[in-house]
Design a protein that fits this description.
The chain is built from six helices and 13 strands. By secondary structure, it is of the alpha+beta class. Bound molecules: zinc ion.
Length: 265
Amino acid sequence: MRKIITHSTIALTALFLTACSQNEIKVPEAHEAHADSPTHHAKHWGYSANVGPKHWSSLNEKFHMCSEGKQQSPINLIPTKDIDLAPLNINYTVGSKSEINNGHTVQVNMKSGNTLNIDGTTFELKQFHFHTPSENHINGKSFPMEAHFVHASADGKLAVISVMFQEGAENPTLNMMMKKFPLAKNQEQKLEFSKDYLNTMLPSSLDYYEFMGSLTTPPCSEQVRWIVLKKPISASKEQIAAMHKEIGMDNNRPIQASNQRVIEE
Ligand SMILES: [Zn+2]
């Protein structure tokens, strides 16, 4: 097992706000309200053919930002401003509650109390989930898998930490998650693991890029703080394949226009 980092005692070197998308937070989730209606379900967003990313904005008027937004995610990260960002102030001190395959991704829901502090604002970790292959690219490079740690503040602001995966050693937390694969769709399964496991999902260096973006899934809401960690962590080739199989498709939204956004590092 990899070395565990005690975030409460180490000055973390990276603050990444990565905003991805996910449904559990205080973000309007247009599809959940009618998820059990077969008629509406036929128009549910997805990743292929007539419900794929190019069509999201036409599936539901609430998804208009997916085509109209000017700060959409994911992007190809090319740093534009070196300002020596403050260390990331992560305190993942609790652990997880459950996991679910929601039809778009595999998501681990958290117990309350895992926090990220940015500029005096506390964000609570709500869940993390996976994309295979990665959504964001770093200097033109794609990764075989990316995890998004979705945080929300008390007033509903979002911050996402993105962690890239490369092929290598097994990740112990993924092993724990995968014991329950295949998951029945949309059925939350109890999955409790400790903060030590949770922290194996972060690299030893927390250096990061920071920029403003959006959810990468409908409704593509903006004003999401993205924190993309520079250093990838490893998962075995088999684990990455198992995650892709469980998700059942490539679930990466295509790269969006940067529109001269400032990418800080
Ligand atoms: Zn995501």
